[in-house]
Amino acid sequence: MSLSSGATPASPLKLAFPQSLAVYDDYAAAQKAVDHLSDHKFPVEQCMIVGTDLKRIERITGRLTNGRVALGGALSGLWFGLFIGLIFTIFTDESAFATIASTMLVGALFGLIFALVSYALTRGVRDFSSVTQVVATRYEVLVEHKVAAQARELLAQLPGATPDPFA
Question: Degrees (nearest 5) of the Cα angle 19, 25, 26?
Answer without folding.
Answer: 100
